[in-house]
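Progress narrative, work stream C.
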Amino acid sequence: MKNRLILCALLLACAGGRAAADEGMWLIQRLGEVYPQMKRTGLRLPAAAIYDEQGASLAGAVVAVDGGVGTGSMISHEGLMITNHHVAYSDICELSTPEHNYLETGFWAATRDEEIPVKGKTVSFLRRTVDVTEQAQAMIAERKAAGSWGVMSMRRLSADLEKLHAVEGLEAWCVSMWGGRKVYIYYYEIYRDVRLVGTPPVSIGAFGGETDNWSWPQHKGDFTLYRVYADRNGRPADYAADNVPLDPQSVLQVATGGVHDGDYTMVLGFPGRTNRYASSCAIVERERVRNPIVVKNRHDRMDILRRRMERNPKVRMEYSDAFFSLSNFADLALWENRCLHRFGVAEIRREEERAMQRWIEADEARRAEYGSVLADLERGYGARRTAQRHLNYFREAWLGPSEALLVANRVVSYLAKLDRMKRDTLRCGDRDAQAVVNGFSRLERNYDAATDRELLIRMVTNFTDSVPRTMWGEALGRMYDAAGGDAARMAGEAFDASFCSSSERYRAAFAEDRTVAELRSDPLVALAGSVFVQRFTGEVERAEKGSGPRVSPTESLYARALYDFREAQGKAQYPNANSTMRLTYGKVAPLTPSDAVHCDARSTIRGYAEKYDPSRYDFRVDDRMRSLVAAGDWGRWGEKGELYVNFLTDNDITGGNSGSPVLDGRGRLVGLAFDGNRESMAADLYFHPRYARTVCVDIRFVMWVIEHYAGAGRLLDEIAFVK
């Protein structure tokens, strides 16, 4: 299934006549009270300057990177795009070699010819939006009347609507909001020739690393530059040497005056996912079931990677991207739990649910539609708790930690296909077998056998210690017994004997046709085939069915009830984030995260000298950076003798906003959003208006690095600067 964007336009406001909350991820289609509030708090632009399908606007300069993995901004009429260093992290790691380790040294193209094409990279521009709510609701009613509406029906409806509203040259995506209250089609122009222009070394782009992640103060130069190319007519095209830099419809101007406490800020981007209509039951399950399993297993993996990366620079290059991802999500789960507990999020939601239940019971129609929704959720979540623990252990400790086991899983999937075709031999020359025959490629890039072996041993041990034997399958149980009940020994012996753990052995295994029985006798293939997801999802389904209605559709019904309840109270509402383009507005703001602790809203270059520690990888500062900091020459990027590095705002962001432009009241670029603070880590479920902060890199520091550190001042000639 292809990686799908579900992108949409900005929501600047709620429906008319309601008071707006300061926080929020707003869409453009419903202008009302939010735009006036934005003007009162410092916006100096008309609404059309922010989003306009007929002409240039700020939104036209903001792009989804790789389908919403991150956000980028067009900053020159020669296709120059800026995003976060950590959004580019995978590209930087993939392009690095022992001879040219761009992660460690950085990279700056001296000419256009030196810019590096990035295979598979895309940037997407929003071009049009269409409200298809009435049509969607009519189609739903028709299909329900015909008895053809089921679990996957909304996905099929979206596909049908996309076909009905297809436009040549644009890609259409259908997305529903508020549990189907609104349905939109969004049209995107997707550019596929994207080239790396410049990136600082990790010691600047990710200074502070795992230690400073989700914290404040930070001192990260979290940025990277790409260039978007098009054909001679400015249209999307695959990479070609004669493609030309794109001249975008809109380009952001860069402000040189900096930001100060209380300044208006707004962020445009593609927040990935929030669950702010989730029930208290869902919050409790996240806090007590999912997050502890995520934290334990990912930190176990991080311990292994950290130790091996510190010993071997080659392993560091191969596993830096994997470690970054693990660290990000493990720390998120850890701090999310702390915030959920500290702020009493589940109880906040329960209090609202008690009021909602009284509102439901006050009306016969509401009782008929929503009367049992809370009771059904209580039963469903309670019944599936144990099954969810097993499923989460499968996801965290079995599915994904080991590359060798992933390779074995691919073999198992193809063998299942051969079973369905009633074939007992894998023919290496068959066209549909090539993905399996060439599976050794996963073992030749960013793979270290000794590291993967240790990961497999630790995770298989965690899995067998935590998941009952009834969920293992025959092969795992048999191999476990043969190893004397020693999971570590079993996993190590399986790894050593398997062709799936070595590219050389893998090539040899598929040098000639193999019977299905031969391939299934491989120990890692046997393990992969013994433990499969359907067993775990089936356990969850059976547990839920035994209690009454399924949890997922009941949560959707709950979300609609919560929406209706809040609407009846006159509360402004924005839809959950779902990788659609949003706008959030706020201000530059300091932070008092806890008793007797106060943090300024801006950090300075002094942090590099204060945190410098050559014995700790996260806090290395190379000689060039140290000498520049010591010299104190900030050029035109300083302010009263200081060079500011990062700053805080109270904007509402989440994953996918990484790289989003932070704009001032006149729509000028003042920074890039790259992180949240630890006190905002419950934001997937609950935005705290007092403690949540967005951590941003000051655009002046970005320009100082480009000009003074990288010596790439020629790039600044493309950019429009304003005071």
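Work stream C, second folded protein:
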Amino acid sequence: MIGVKIDIITDDSRRLTGPNLLSDYPGAVLEVFVKGISNKVVIESWNKHLAELLAKLGLDCEVYSRSFEGGANLGFRADEDMLYTACEINEAAVELARAELTDATPNDELVNLDYLNKQLSQERNPKLMVLIEGANEHQISYLVDDDYFSLGMGNACQVWEINDLPNPINLQWQTFTDIPVALITGTNGKSTSVRMCDSIIKAGGISAGITSTDYIRAADVILDRGDYSGPGGARTLLRDDRVEVALLEVARGGMLRRGIGTSAAKAALITNVADDHLGQYGINTVAELIAVKAVVARSLSKDGMLVVNADDQGLVDFFEHNPELIRGRICWFSLDNCHERITKQQELAEACVWLEADNIFFSDRGNISNIININDIPTTMQGAAKHNVANSMGAVALCYAMGSSFDEIAEGLRTFKGDNKDNPGRGNYFNINGVTLLVDFAHNAHSLSAVIDTVSAMPAKRRLIMMGHAGDRTDRDIINLTDVATQLNPDAVITAELADYLRGRELGAVPNLIKKQLETYEKVPEIIYADDCLSGAKSAIEWAEPGDFILLLALDQRDAIFDYLESIS
């Protein structure tokens, strides 16, 4: 169109080290944001220039792309010993496409073929690729990163420095074996499900290791605290000789940035998918986010089991339209014993889990088992916490697929208290001088609604909520979360500053946005500002009287808040 300015902006070029949204294999991908021209035209031009570059460099690679509103993901499959150069090749192809479509001169530094050839030659590691070929031939799992290469998992794992690799001829391939690996993903319930499964595995006397957004733990030893829900955490855990079973929390960000850390999972669980963290990496809708969460299915072995929440209609629709992603078996679970997916699975004698008369039932190959009454599972709060009933059902199926007995599953769920020791930050209750207090990590509308639904029927003289949000949340998200929180009809709201999570916003911007929204309500609660979450918790205790209820949405300083609450209990 005459007079329309064309913009093609490259963003976040990165390596994919495992199964990912666009492929089962490692590769390179980037986003382009497009204005004034169709995505299709940009993709076609990029594809043409990439094919020319790959041919000149002597490479034959699978190419893939994905269009989204305002741009596209562009990438291609690449060997593990050329991922950095693959990113530069991809950037060069986009630059050539940009120059062609905007009638501009390409940046010589980005498209220099001699430079790309030199980089490719320097990065190549033929010995590594021979080992990978051998591992694939012998059906042995391998893990590779910038510094190390390993074969096998757990106590059968052996690790070498990437520049000091062994001769494949000298390897005893039969000694490298795997451990059972489970992947747990979803918008909410991931960490709780991981910890529930850990309790079940322990009930069987087996040493489990877990990765999560809170820490990485091998057996009972916490290796480090922080967000280890990506492939780096997975590699660390799978190489630890203390781990007999691995439970890996897999978050959206890690899958989009790097892919999945392993291609040998025995089971995978998708808890649910809701509106959260949209607008990043070209994922703008819940439907697109579902496709991201479904990446865990790409990592399943051929005899693996995919466990999916049938009460999430988006997930049901996705797998109905993408059956090829179900590599092994699928097990549906539902709170509704008459759910279409449950009845169909029973007719097919396939695996399913459902709730009936307060009991969790499991069926597979025509055999029905009553696993446990939900009143015997502490985290369900006599069934009031429906989200933890669902989490329990997902854990039943996942651990069944991992080899746990029904007795072990029931015992693990029964002994998982869900307190600040078993499941910190997820539904932790305290009673302090007659005040009921709940600490929860609920950080999006879906999880917060589940918490509000659980506690809304609890009697209380007065109610207080402490809330605060990271600065990368949109104004719409923060307003929506405020609306959800106030469904509890609080008498007071503490707006807590998250100074370490401003992420581009000014200090005070988020609390002020919450305050502004609260002031639009017919019943305006008392509004109290806190410099941080710990100060907010202390203010809440000072405000409260016997018979009151406090909900602390502790997105920061959680351990300090627990220490404080225990000190005054």
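The chain is about 35% helix and 25% strand. No further action is required on this item.
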